[in-house]
Every structure is written in C-alpha cells, then in structure tokens.
Amino acid sequence: DILLDKFPNTMRLALAAILVEIVIGLLTGIISAVKQYSFWDVLVTLSTSILVSVPVFWLGMLLQMFFGIKLKQWTGGAVFLPISGMGNPPDLAHLILPAITLASVSTAYVARIMRSQMLEAMGQDYIRTAMAKGLSQRVVVFKHALKNALIPVVTFIGIDLGALMGGAILTESVFSWPGVGREIFLAVMQRDWPVVMGGVVIVVLIVMVVNLLVDISYAILDPRIRYGGTAE
After folding, report:
1. Is residue 38 situated within a structural domain?
2. How far is CA 74 from the centre of its chain?
3. How many domains does the chain have?
4. Residue 136: Cβ within 10 Å count
5. Quick check: 9 and 179 in contact, CB under 8 A?
6. What is the CATH number of the domain that holds 221?
7. Whole-prediction pTM
8. Which domain holds residue 73?
C-alpha cells in the first residue's frame, strides 16, 4: 500500500521526464544529422558527451543551487523554481527541475541514437530518390527518413520509461520527491525489507508491461515487423 500510494507521483515525474527526453532528444538529434559537421552538430555532440558523463545527483544539486538559490538572489525573489517536494496541491513548478534532472542522461542518449539513425536513413537509396524528385528537405526528413529511424529510439525510450517509472531513486531523493524511488531508498536505509521487495516486484512488472507495449509499437511504425507479415 505504501508503494502504491507513491506510484502516481513517480509516474507523473517519469512521464514528464520522457516528454523532455522525446522533445529535446529527437529535435537535437535530427538537427545534428541534417546539419552534419556544422556548428550545431559539434554543439550537440559535445553537449551529449558532457551530459552522459555527469552524475544525475550532482546535476540535480547544481540545478537546485542555481534555480532555487542563486537565481532567487539575483532577481530579488522574483524568479526561482522550487527545489524540493511536489507542492500542495502538486503543481508544474515543482516538477520542472526533477524532470529535467531525470531526463538529462536519457536525452543525451536519445539525441545520439537519433543522429546516428537519421544519418543512416539519409544515406539510403529511397531518400536520394525522393530528393531527386524535388521533394523539400522537410518532407524528406520528417515523412521518409524519420519514420525509418525511429525504431531504435522507441526501443530505448520504452526501456527507459520502464526504468523511470520503476523509481528514479537518486532524483527523487535529491529533490525529496515523494515517489516509489525515494520510498525504496528510505526502506533500504531503515532495513524495511518487505517494502524493498515490493519495490522490486513493481519495477519488474512495469518493465515487462512497457517492453510489451514497445513490441506492439514496432508493428505500427513498420508494418514489415508484424507477425506473419512479409517484407515486400
């Protein structure tokens, strides 16, 4: 019951992080691929390399210090973001920093995967044919190349969603977010093993369900993958 009560809070945080991951990761990956070897490509590559190397808890504390303390001091309290809790009642302001922190590493990986897959797709014969027919770059990128580049990205996002909804222990602990991850952390510290085992069961079930949904989404993105279908 303790974990089930906290589950909606973790789900809210995980879905917000996934939204950040999808929007920023996909857009930066596409831009980096379309503008290969440009300033933007170098910037995205450098930024993602830094993000995957930064510990999540350290990034969370940096965001807390800047947006919750420094920015508040510089603006005389006019601009700042809450650095702990989820508000009473829950509000969007309390969700922003934890969601950004939780999504940081995953966003970098999504951008990298998207860039790699888009570059591979843009080199295919059907893309060159579409461009030779005079189609605009926007149509070629978003209608033809993007759909074929999405499957590996969907795989990663699906696996990541299962992990995030299972409980982001570090992020929830840093921001005192009352979710499953923080509850598991407190249970470990207090040696409350029934709660820990319950948390593990919840994580496993979530990962299984999300992986099933990811497999189903493959058939939507690419009909050739449907059971019993043929790649004609």
Report:
1. yes
2. 31
3. 1
4. 11
5. yes
6. 1.10.3720.10
7. 0.83
8. 2-225
